[in-house]
Every structure is written in C-alpha cells, then in structure tokens.
Amino acid sequence: MTPAGKLALLASLYLAQGMPYGFFSQFLPAMLREQGVSLEGVGLASLLALPWALKFAWAPLVDRHGSSRFGHRRSWIVPLQLLTVVTLLALSLVEPSVDLQAMLLGVLVLNFLASTQDIATDGLAVTILAPQERGLGNGVQVAAYRLGMILCGGVLLILYPWLGWARVCQCMAGAIALTTLPIAGFREPPPEVQERPGLAVFAEFFRRPGMGSWLIAIAAFKLGEAFGVGMLRPFFIDVGLGLADIGWLTGTAGFIAGLVGAMVGGAFVTSFGRWRCLFVFAAVQALAVASYAIAAAGWRDGWVLYALCTFEHFASGMATAALFTMMMDASRPRTAGTDYTIQASVVVLATGVGASLSGFSAANFGYTDHFLIAAGMCVLGTLPAVLHWRRVRRGETELANVP
Predict the structure, then answer these.
(1) End-to-end CA, the chain
(2) Which of 115, 17, 37, 79 has the alpha carbon at shortest distance from 359?
(3) pTM reported for the whole predicted model
(4) What does the pLDDT look like over 32-47, one tens digit per residue?
(5) How far out from the chain centre does Cα 28 lie?
(6) Which of 400, 358, 352 is nearest to 55 (CA)?
(7) What angle do CA 147, 148, 150 make, to 5 degrees?
(8) Are 400 and 214 in contact (CB under 8 A)?
(9) What digits encode the pLDDT tens for the residues 349-400?
(10) What is the phi-psi region of residue 164: left when phi exceeds 0, alpha when psi lies from -120 to 50, beta otherwise?
(11) Residue 196, Cβ neighbours under 10 Å: how many?
(12) Three-state SS letters, the chain
C-alpha cells in the first residue's frame, strides 16, 4: 500500500472516532451549561469518557481475536462503526430535556464503541506505518480526529438551533456510515507475526525498562491543558455567548487551527526530532492556556477570543502530534493495539481527572485564576518527560529513544 493510501485510510478512521468524541467533549458541555447544569456537574460529565481510560482492559482481546479472512483489525473496526451508527439513530429518538439520563447513557455507549474501535485502529496504524512515516502519520491522525470534532462539536453546535436533537444525531450517523466505506474496501495484509498475545501481554508491557517513568511522563504532559480547557465552554456561556457563537469559535475556528497545528507538528517532528519538538510544543501549550486569563480578566472583544482560541488549539495540535508519535514508537508490532492503548488510556485517564476537577477550580477561584493555575500545571507537567529523557540519554531505557 502506498504511503498516501495509508494516510487516507487512517484519516477516514480517525475522522470516525473524532465525531462522537467531538459531540461528547464540545457539544455536550455547552448544551448542559445552557440548560442550567452547574459547573461541577458539567465537569463531572467528563467521566462519561471512562471507556477511553479503561479500554486497556479489553485491548488484549482485540489484539488476540479477529478474523484472518476478513482482516484482523478490519473485523473489529467495521462492526463497531456500524454499531455506532445504530446507537446514534437510537439516540435520535431520545429527548434530552425530558430524559437526560437516557441521553447520557447513550453517550457512554458511544464512547465505549469509539474507544474499542480506537484500539483496532491504533494497532493497524502501528503495523502499516514505517518509523519514518509516523511523524506525518500522527499529524494526519490528529488532524482527522480534530476534523471529526469540528464537524460534530462545532458545526453541529451552529446548526443545532435549526436542526434539533434528532436531526443532529441522524447527521452524525450518516457521516460515520460514510467513513466506514474505505475500511470496508481495504484488504488488510496478514500479520507478519502469527502468534497472538494473551493476557500476559500486560506483564510484559510493564516489565519493559523505563516504562514506569514513561507512563508518568505522558500522563502529566496533557493534564494541565485538560484541567484548563475543561471550563472553556462553560466560561463562554457565562460571558454571554450562545451555542452557535461557541460553535464558530471553538468547534470551527479553533479546531481548524488544531488541525493545522497537528499537521505542522507532525512535519516538525519528522524534520527536527521527537524530544526537541515535545519540549518546545509543551512550552507553547502552557503559554496558550495562560492566555485565556486575558479574556477571563475582561478583554473579551470578538477578535481577542478568536485569537486566543486559535492559538491554544494550534499549540495543542502540535503537542498532541509529537506525543502520539512517541507513543507509537514505544509500541511493539506484535502487541501494537495493546501497547498503544495502554499509553492512550493513561493519557485519557489523566486528562479525564483534570477535566472532572476543573469545575471545582473555576467555581472556587474564578476563571482568571483557574486558567493561570492550569498553565502552571502545564509547565510542571513537562518535568516527568525531562526526567525520562535523561534516563534515555543515560541508556537506562529504549523507550522513546528516537532522537
């Protein structure tokens, strides 16, 4: 398969993942806040992402079981995407203002299906991308994921007043059905290693030299950002923006900037090296989170909000592309789905904790101090990565040892 063909296939798969997650992480918080849910409640709703944090528990099953005739990863991805379509069509029959619990349960199911699809997709990406293709490949991955978030976290926020809940769900279902076509026509090559790992893969993974320090590093890297931006949409609601305004601001302009940032970050990682880019992008990410304090302090002209949001999403896209590339480097081909999923689960768990606690910070300290505290957490969050890098330099671990 040509490099362009690999990137196109992965783009369609990560686009499909980004749509439900954009709906959950961008659309849902703004809608809940508009309906009068407290800041603490909006923050705690982020716990619906729990399947993304716990997916490592069933990742070995996805690595071990699959149809060799249909394609090991493909035999998981296609049914899961079709089940996502069915779930969205069922959700279209629920009225959130009448039965909020049923709607939240449906979102939880969506997150479970998308997170399981992610296991198979990540495993496919690790196995088909050569090491020199991973920088650009992860740029495309993050960009496509953010495009899905634009469509279902931004565009749908803009159209929600006209479409209504049922049509929003139906549009998402149709879009995900279309993204299933490329993988349905893909002929997955047989794995080079025929042995399929069992549950012992967990012990093998954690016994690898340096794995503990690496997992701490990736957990801390995005924690501060998640803590900060977890209250971004409630902040916009509280300063008087409507759902359509937030859709244009964060879900469209912001995520287009994130898409561009991911592509730029992926290209820079390939050209200038993993570690150099990781540390530079981390510093830019901390500055971007701190910049939201400008708006919280009272400077809220439209162009200011757009500039701040664009800057933060661009920085986040670059940092995410660098981090994901290094996570892929730390994954073994034989257990690619499990290895990458464990790392991704650590990141999601850390960011979920940060987002779930963000409401308490904003409620007690105010938005200005909240964003500044989050920026400080971003800076401190790079220290574990520095410590792990020093271990790599001393030859104590081979994890993420690509320059």
Answers:
(1) 27
(2) 37
(3) 0.71
(4) 777 777 777 777 777 7
(5) 16
(6) 352
(7) 60
(8) yes
(9) 888 888 888 888 988 899 999 999 999 999 999 999 999 998 888 877 766 6
(10) left
(11) 16
(12) CCHHHHHHHHHHHHHHHHHHHHHHHHHHHHHHHHCCCCHHHHHHHHHHHHHHHHHHHCHHHHHHCCCCCCCCCHHHHHHHHHHHHHHHHHHCCCCCCCCHHHHHHHHHHHHHHHHHHHHHHHHHHHHHCCHHHHHHHHHHHHHHHHHHHHHHHHHHHHHHHHHHHHHHHHHHHHHHHHHHHHHHCCCCCCCCCCCCCCCCHHHHHHHCCCHHHHHHHHHHHCHHHHHHHCCHHHHHHHCCCCHHHHHHHHHHHHHHHHHHHHHHHHHHHHHHCHHHHHHHHHHHHHHHHHHHHHHHCCCCCHHHHHHHHHHHHHHHHHHHHHHHHHHHHCCCHHHHHHHHHHHHHHHHHHHHHHHHHHHHHHHHHCHHHHHHHHHHHHHHCCHHHHHHHHHHHCCCCCCCCCC
Give me 144's structure tokens: 């496509």
Reported as half-sphere exposure (CB side, CA atoms, 13 A), residue 102 has a value of 12
